[in-house]
Each structure stands twice: as structure tokens, then as C-alpha cells.
Amino acid sequence: IPLFEARGLTLDYVTERGTVRAVDAVDFTIAEGERLVLLGPSGCGKSSILKAVAGFLEPSAGSLSLRGSAIRGPGPDRLVVFQEFDQLLPWKTVLDNVAFPLVATRRMKKAEAREIAADALRRVGLERALDSYPHTLSGGMKQRAAIARALAASPDVLLMDEPFAALDALTRLQMQRDLMDIARETGLTLLFVTHDIDEAVLIGTRLHLLSAHPGRTITTLDVSAFDMRD
Ligand code: ADP
Ligand code: ADP
Asked: SUPFAM superfamilies from the xrefs (predicted)?
């Protein structure tokens, strides 16, 4: 069985003006070590799918399962990095932002959590910012810290929702490359949302194309053969 499976996934929002169908009967799977990119125009439901996988949004129909078990609510096995730069706690250092969730949710000793956190921060190139506070960091560095926090918890699937979209072009390129280096090194399983075709081809081993609102599956493309960088 695949690590992760969505079958007939349908997502609705209930609003004052009625029910909005954001995602309509979408199917996809993610194998271990695979990088699946959800690609489609703005409003096609990519973020909604990611939120459902994260456990923030419940399917109206269909199913989502991880290792064969239905997903119920959020969990440290599926962690999200969002587009926004304000994902860190402003009153904690970068090191403690990454270490804190390990202490809180894994009941790890502080010293051990800090060791794992420092290692994750090293992997994203933030070894010199361990004692900095978030407000002193650039947008790119904040995103690196958010990525390190997710990596430190070793999730089964890392979920990323346009994590580089708000960065300047040069920083975005650097971060895309660094993410790919980390992914190859660690065999990261990734579900990545973007509307940028270049980014999708760069990051993904497979692309899952969604139609405009409400999102339905158009097709899934294997793009691992395009990976000429190794
Ligand atoms: P994408 O990430 O592809 O831009 P979204 O998942 O954000 O798409 O949105 C899909 C559709 O669901 C859009 O039509 C959007 O307006 C609608 N939608 C998203 N979030 C909500 C919400 N909280 N309430 C009502 N409608 C929403
Ligand atoms: P994205 O970058 O995914 O396109 P948006 O700017 O469309 O994000 O949406 C940002 C936030 O607003 C999301 O949390 C989404 O759920 C919410 N949202 C989007 N569309 C609507 C809507 N029609 N009604 C209420 N909330 C919405």
C-alpha cells in the first residue's frame, strides 16, 4: 500500500451563502520518498487539499489515509510549512522555536531536543542563527527555520504550501535548490503545492494537475525522468 492515499476526496466550505465545493472527487497517492506536487491555477483547491491532509479540514466525501489508516485531525506525522513568514514564536530563539515542539509533543528532554534542533538548522544553513530571534531574520531565513522545525520532527510527509512564493526571485531559487539537496539526502516524502510550473517540475518527482475551481484531477505526470541534475 502507498504511504498516503486520497480517494474521491471532496472538500466543501459551508458559508452564509451556501456550500462552496473547493475540491471534487480527487484521487492521488504518495509513495515513500516521493515528491508529489499539486499544480493548478489559483482557487483550484490546492491549499484545501493540503489542509485536509494536515488534518485541519475534514473531507465531505471520500477518504484520506496514511499507512492504511484514516486521517483524523492534525498530527506530528504530517507537518506543514506555509507561505507566510510568521510561523515562528517571536519570543523564542530560532533554536528554541525548533526544539520546543519536540519537548511539547514528543516529551523529549530539552537538551536532546536542542541537539536535534541544531542539527536540523544546520541542514537548512542556519547554523549561525541559532540564538537569533525571528524578527531579526530575513523572510528566507524565517522560511528556513520553519522548514527546520518541520524536519526536526521527522514527519512521514512534509507538506508545503507555496513556501517560497513570497520570497524574492534569487532567494527563491536558492531555497528550491537547498530543499532538493535536503530531499535527496534524507529521502524526504513531500507534498508540495504551487501554481508555478517551473517550480513544480524542479521540485516534483510526480505532478498532479488539478482543473480550475472546483478542483478535479486532470492527470498525474511522472517527471522523475526530467531530473538531469544527478
Ligand atoms: P488554491 O490553494 O488552489 O488557490 P484554495 O484551496 O485556497 O485554492 O481554494 C479553493 C476554493 O475554495 C476557492 O474557490 C476558494 O475561494 C474556496 N475557499 C477556500 N477557503 C475557503 C473558506 N475558508 N471559506 C470559503 N471558501 C473557501
Ligand atoms: P492561496 O494562496 O492558497 O490562493 P488565498 O489568498 O486564496 O490563498 O486564501 C488565503 C486564506 O483565505 C486561506 O486560509 C483560505 O482558506 C481563505 N479563503 C480563501 N478563499 C476564501 C473565501 N472565499 N472565503 C473565505 N475564506 C477564504
From this structure: P-loop containing nucleoside triphosphate hydrolases (SSF52540)
CB 216 within 8 A of CB 26: yes
Q: What is the pLDDT of residues 133-191, one digit of tens each?
A: 999 999 999 999 999 999 999 999 999 999 999 999 999 999 999 999 999 999 999 99
What is the ipTM, given to two decimal places?
Answer: 0.76
Do residues 36 and 190 touch, judged by C-beta distance below 8 A?
yes
Gap from CA of 99 to ligand 2 centroid (Å):
30
- pLDDT tens column, 209-227: 999 988 888 888 888 866 6
Q: How confident is the model at residue 228 (pLDDT cuts 50, 70, 90)?
A: low
Would the CB of 42 count as within 6 Å of ligand 2?
yes
CB-based contact 132:98 (threshold 8 Å): no
Verify whether ligand 2 is closer than 6 Å to residue 87 (CB atom): no
188, 158 in Cβ contact below 8 A? yes
CA distance 47 to 84: 13
For residue 180, what are the contacts with CB-CB under 8 A and spacing of at least 6? 202, 203, 229
Among 20, 80, 83, 159, say which to mutate for ligand 1: greatest number of ligand atoms within 8 Å of CB. Answer: 20
Could you tell me the distance, in angstroms and rounded to a whole number, from the CA of residue 215 to the centre of ligand 2? 14
Q: Please work out whether the CB of residue 69 comes within 6 Å of at least one atom of ligand 2.
A: no
Ligand 1 binding site (Cβ under 6 Å of any ligand atom) = 13, 15, 20, 22, 40, 42-48, 213
Q: Which three cell numbers stand for residue 109?
A: 528532554
